[in-house]
What does this fold into?
Amino acid sequence: MAEEKRRNLGRGLNALLGETGMNANPPLAAAAGEVGEQTRGLRTLPIERLKPGRFQPRRVFDEASIADLVESVREKGILQPILVRPDGGDYEIIAGERRWRAAQRASIHEVPVIVREMTDREALEVALVENLQRQDLSPLEEADGYRRLAEEFNHTQEELAKAVGKSRSHVANMMRLLALPEAIKGMVDKSELTAGHARALLTAADPVGLARHVVEKGLNVRQTEKLAGEAAGAAKAKPAKKAEVPRDADLAELERDLAASLGVKVKIASTGKGGDITITYGSLEQLDDILSRLTGKR
It folds into this structure.
């Protein structure tokens, strides 16, 4: 089963999508060995027959980018077919939703598509790999794409790196971004911080506070790394002071009463419904006296 998963991921998008115009990773395309399949399923469909895919990894569609694509579509048309799969009487988009959106705005009535029968698993995997190879996802969308491929298909970081033409360290570093606080993720999504800034903040003692400072001052990645390192060093050199928990007044009063009755130091600690009583004695004679007082035996 694991070997089958690795083989599918390594087929590349030219094989999976059957498109001659895909910018698939060359080693993957060469490994496919399915040149004869490239034009199978190619046809033209009315644009209203297509609908967005359920497995689209993109969370935000950049309006400026789509506007540029609209102008290109108006001038040259849809040069690269949209990958779809049958869904009832319509077709679900697996790869190419930006082209479909741009075609709508450009008032294009029919678009070229490649129709493939795919399971949900195959549709999700292709949608993720296609977007990751194109390098047009946001840093967090890219990171989440790697996570989903790793978790849902049991792919290793090495396999993911080969599939999208990246280094293993790049994949690992991007996936680390998922550990960031939500406030910093929001700054990355708004392009206030880059992926480089975000990685530097991972080791900061107060990542959110430092992130706000970086945005406010417009610091670059190198400056951010320096600040994060200095903050981490200062926090390590200065041990954190334990916050004092205010004592319950009733417990404190009971401690004093019991200490006066027994003639020794007494400490009462509450643990919720119950608690602990600690009695400190200085000698066996004092212990014997305490036991006598507690048992009433003299």
Notes: The chain has three domains: 2-172, 180-234, 249-295. Strands lie at 42-46, 50-51, 82-87, 90-95, 110-115, 265-270, 275-280.
